[in-house]
């Protein structure tokens, strides 16, 4: 049996069978719903089901869907199966160029910490690709595979910077990147993703990151420097220990250029010398805010942190349609474990 799906924002419609996901049906019929991982882990394909009924094939909520979101009618298009005609609302992401392959040159390669690379790439002069702070790019490998990394700098000039976690035995980080030198070239595809600043909200913002989830948040905050219309900002960054924190001088310098900016590092395995916050970013947010009903929330990092943080901020009244997330879905199990250990 087929059901009819109407996408409110674009007024596009398509048919979906009872045995296929909404995303599969849309893709098959040329309707470009936003998506990334396709297995329910990243949340990019989140949609609000305004009318109709849906279910999931195994009866379980996908990893990137919180109970609170589900209760308010949100679903992940890559996993949801229609049980009736549907009317859906889907965020379309920032206005930008379609994904484009460019030849990028390594401009700088060094270590932020023993585990995290700073990689700066120069894109070709006059490339013309428009992207938004918070989006990511793919580095294309010789065999057709790719590695995805959030851009840690706003779109200014031709340079993009990345923060790349070093993975033991990782094909890219211990193979390709370990031997790379300035002047080497990579093919990169950009832009990808829907994570970006939502100026239309115009309300105080809470940003939370774990590990290299700092990268897209750094890009967004740097894009807001000296912006007279920038709302108040709280930024929570979760790491394990003091040595894991990097670019602290840059973050501290933002205080004079962002309106009411507060930075809160939170360490899960801090030494006795640490006088700052301990534990997890989501718990620190809950301790600091009784009411988040007038705040926009930006979450970036491990799927576990994002799921927990969504539940925590919902209890403080945060509106689900004002929670934006970028869940780092990694290429292999070792990378996933490494990022989860930041919590």
Automatic annotation (TrEMBL):
FAD-binding FR-type domain span: 99-198
Residue ranges occupied by any 2Fe-2S ferredoxin-type domain in the UniProt entry: 4-94
InterPro entries, per database record: 2Fe-2S_ferredoxin-like_sf (IPR036010), 2Fe-2S_ferredoxin-type (IPR001041), 2Fe2S_fd_BS (IPR006058), Beta-grasp_dom_sf (IPR012675), Cbr1-like_FAD-bd_dom (IPR008333), FAD-bd_FR_type (IPR017927), Flavoprot_Pyr_Nucl_cyt_Rdtase (IPR001709), FNR_nucleotide-bd (IPR039261)
Enzyme Commission number(s) of this protein: 1.17.1.1
Annotated keywords: 2Fe-2S, Iron, Iron-sulfur, Metal-binding, Oxidoreductase
SUPFAM superfamilies: 2Fe-2S ferredoxin-like, Ferredoxin reductase-like, C-terminal NADP-linked domain, Riboflavin synthase domain-like
GO molecular function: CDP-4-dehydro-6-deoxyglucose reductase activity
Keyword Translocase in annotation: no
Pfam families per UniProt: FAD_binding_6, Fer2, NAD_binding_1
Cofactor: [2Fe-2S] cluster; FAD
PANTHER family xrefs: NADH OXIDOREDUCTASE HCR, PROTEIN RFBI
Name assigned to this protein: CDP-4-dehydro-6-deoxyglucose reductase
Lineage: Bacteria, Pseudomonadati, Pseudomonadota, Betaproteobacteria, Burkholderiales
């Amino acid at each position: 049996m087929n059901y009819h799906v109407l996408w409110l924002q674009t007024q596009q419609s398509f048919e979906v069978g009872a045995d296929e996901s909404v995303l599969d049906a849309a893709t098959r019929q040329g309707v470009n719903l936003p998506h990334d991982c396709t297995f329910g882990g990243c949340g990019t394909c989140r949609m609000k089901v305004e009318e109709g009924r849906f279910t999931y094939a195994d009866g379980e909520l996908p990893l990137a869907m919180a109970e609170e979101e589900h209760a308010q009618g949100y679903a992940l298009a890559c996993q949801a199966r229609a049980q009736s005609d549907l009317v859906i609302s889907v965020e379309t992401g920032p206005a930008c160029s379609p994904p484009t392959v460019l030849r990028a040159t390594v401009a700088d390669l060094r270590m932020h910490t023993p585990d995290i690379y700073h990689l700066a790439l120069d894109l070709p002069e006059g490339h013309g690709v428009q992207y938004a702070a918070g989006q990511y790019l793919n580095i294309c490998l010789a065999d057709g595979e790719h590695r995805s990394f959030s851009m840690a700098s706003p779109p200014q000039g031709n340079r993009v910077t990345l923060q790349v976690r070093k993975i033991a035995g990782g094909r890219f980080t211990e193979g390709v990147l370990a031997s790379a030198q300035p002047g080497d070239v990579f093919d990169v595809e950009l832009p990808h993703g829907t994570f970006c600043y939502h100026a239309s909200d115009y309300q105080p913002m809470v940003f939370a990151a774990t590990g290299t989830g700092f990268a897209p948040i750094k890009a967004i905050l740097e894009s807001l420097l000296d912006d007279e219309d920038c709302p108040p900002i709280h930024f929570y960054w979760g790491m394990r220990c003091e040595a894991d924190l990097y670019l602290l001088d840059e973050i501290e310098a933002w205080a004079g250029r962002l309106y009411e900016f507060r930075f809160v590092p939170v360490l899960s395995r801090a030494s006795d010398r640490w006088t700052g916050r301990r534990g997890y970013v989501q718990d620190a947010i809950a301790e600091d805010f009784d009411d988040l009903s007038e705040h926009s929330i930006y979450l970036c990092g491990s799927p576990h942190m994002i799921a927990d943080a969504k539940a925590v901020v919902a209890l403080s009244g945060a509106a689900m349609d004002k929670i934006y997330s970028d869940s780092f879905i990694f290429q292999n199990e070792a990378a996933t474990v490494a990022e989860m250990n930041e919590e």
